[in-house]
Amino acid sequence: MPLPKAELHLHVEGTLEPELAFELAARNGVTLPYADTEELREAYRFKDLQSFLNLYYELMAVLRTEQDFADLAGAYLARAAAQGVRHAEIFFDPQAHIARGVSLGTVVEGLWRALGSSERDHGISTRLIMCFLRDESADSALETLQAATPYLDRITGVGLDSAEVGHPPAKFREVYAAAAALGLRRVAHAGEEGPPAYITEALDVLGVERVDHGLRCLEDPALVERLVRERVPLTLCPLSNVRLRAVETLADHPLPAMLDAGLLCTVNSDDPAYFGGYAGDNFRAVRETLGLSEDRLRELARNSFVASFLEDDEERRAR
Ligand code: HPA
Ligand code: ZN
To answer: What are the helix (H) ranges across 131-267?
Structure first.
C-alpha cells in the first residue's frame, strides 16, 4: 500500500500524457508537430524552465472542450489514486486557455466534471487553485480574477506560475490583495529559478501561505530561519528539479538537508507527464536515491496534509 499523501503542487495541464495529447488532437482536428508519441517524448529534454514551458504551452492546443478538461483531470486522479494520493490541490492556468479562445467557464466546468465526483470515483478530495501567469501583465491577472467571479465557489485559492526570473511577486500585489479580500487562499511559485528575495516578497507582499518550490531559500540562511520559525510549507518537486536542471542530479537534491534544517517540506510532482513521475514516483525516487528513512517519508506525508487547505476534520479523515 503506498503511503497516503496529499499533492499540493500539481499543474493539471502538466498531467497531459502523450497518448492523451494525440487522442485529443484527433478528436479536435488539431495537428501536432510530432509524428507520434515516441517523437513527442523525444522532445522532453529540457535545459531550463522556459524550454519546458514552450512545450507545455504548445501541447495545450489539444485542450478545447469541457470534456477534454474532464478527461485530463480524470486521468490524473486515477493515476494519483493508484499512488496513494488522498487529497489534491490542483493548479490550472486560465490565461493560457483564454488566449487560445477557450473560456474560463469551459475550463472550470470541465475540470469540475472530474473533480466533483473525485471522492466517490477515486477516494481523493480536491481543491482548485487558479494560477496567474507571471510573464503576463498585472492587468491581465486582474481581468482573470474578475472573469472568475461566477466560479469562486469552485476555486479555493490563487497561485503564480510560469517564467519566474524578471517577474517578481510584487508585480502582482494588487491582484493578490483582491483575491484575499474575496476570501481566496494564496500561494506562489518562488525560488525555483528566481532568487531568495522573491520568496521573501511572496510572503511579505503577496501574503502567501505556502511557497511553491522555494528551493533557493537555501542561499539565504536568515530566510531559512524565518521559514522554519513561521512554519511556512514548501512544495518541493524533486523530479521536476532534475528535469529542469535546478539540481544536477537527484542525488544532489537538498531535501535531506532541508528536512534536517527543520523546514516544512512536502514532495510533489509539478508536471508529472513531463518530468517522469507522479507523487508516489517522487516519493520512491527520494527514498531510493536520497536514502530517506521511513520516519522521514512519514514526516513528508504528514506534512502534505498539515500544509494542505483541508479543514482539521477533513484532514484527519484523509490521512
Ligand atoms: N514552474 C513554473 N511554472 C510552471 C511550472 C513550473 O514548474 N509548471 C507549469 N507552470
Ligand atoms: Zn509548478
So the answer is: 138-147, 173-181, 196-204, 221-229, 238-243, 255-260
CATH 3.20.20.140 is right for the domain spanning 5-308 = yes
- pLDDT tens, residue by residue, 46-92: 999 999 999 999 999 999 999 999 999 999 999 999 999 999 999 99
Kindly list the catalytic residues.
192
For the chain, what is the mean pLDDT? 97
Task: Tell which one of 162, 213, 216, 236 to mutate to probe ligand 1, the residue whose CB is within 8 A of the most ligand atoms.
Answer: 162
Which ligand neighbours the alpha carbon of 9 most closely? 2
Instruction: Measure the CA–CA gap between 70 and 72, rounded to whole angstroms.
Output: 5
List residues near ligand 1 (CB under 6 A). 11, 14, 49, 56, 161-162, 189, 192, 240, 270-271
Rounded Cα–Cα distance for residues 99 and 135 (Å): 13
Total-model pTM:
0.98
Distance 41 CA to ligand 2 centre (A): 20
